[in-house]
Structures are given as structure tokens and as C-alpha cells.
């Protein structure tokens, strides 16, 4: 959704001992603790915080409440750019295709690196 204020997008990596659904539950709890109210927000609209589980190691997860790899991530420059900066050789566990291969096919979608924000 383009009709919203600018927002910061980032990707982080780490190790986790939580099962995927417990990790999702805790991410949702953190969002709520920081003011996110899913019942009152527009779909794809502004929100205080949006935590997504993009990948969970090389696992493929297809549950009603959790899909991993995150659906649509290969179509979003704002996900692919920071993901590739963090891990340039990372590949999609569904296809084995490097995530960097998807970037040329997505538009810039109005994103720019944080260091260049003053230019826009």
C-alpha cells in the first residue's frame, strides 16, 4: 500500500530454540506490547510494528497460521534487498534458487537504503 507514511524495513538473522509456532506467538505478543492492534488496522496499511518469520532454517512450514518461507517474499524488494545484504548467497528452500536471482524481477517499490534517505 503506497498511501501511508514511510517506514523502516529490516531483516535479522539468529538462532532460535523455539518451535516455529511459539516463535510466531512471541512475535505477535511483542507487536501487541508495542501498540499493534490488528483489529483496528487496514490490511497492508500503517502499523506500529510488523514482525514476520521469513525463514526458519531450511524448513518448509505450511500451517493455517504460519507459512515459511514467507509467502510473497520473493516479490518484495523491501524484503529481498536487506535479506541479500545480510546473506548474499542464501537460497529459497522451496526451489534452491538464490534469493538474489529474484531481485531483478521486482520493482524498486519506492525503497531506498536508510543511508540515502536524505536524498529522497
- Helix count, DSSP H or I runs of 4 or more residues: 2
SS-based class? mainly alpha
If strands are numbered along the chain, what order do they take across the biggest sheet? 1-2
- Give the low-pLDDT segments: 116-120
Task: Describe this structure as you would to a colleague.
With 120 residues, the chain is mainly alpha-helical. The protein is 20% helix and 5% strand. It contains two helices and two strands. It has helices at residues 20-33, 77-86; strands at 61-63, 66-68. A two-stranded antiparallel ribbon has the order 1-2. It is globular and about 35 Å long. The chain starts with 19 loop residues before the first helix and ends in a 34-residue tail after the last helix. 8% of the residues are buried. Mean pLDDT is 87; it is low at 116-120.
Task: Note the main attributes of this structure.
mainly alpha, globular, two-stranded antiparallel ribbon
What is the structure about, briefly put?
With 120 residues, the chain is mainly alpha-helical.
Secondary-structure blueprint of this entry?
Layout lengths: L19 H14 L27 E3 L2 E3 L8 H10 L34
Antiparallel strand pairs: 1-2
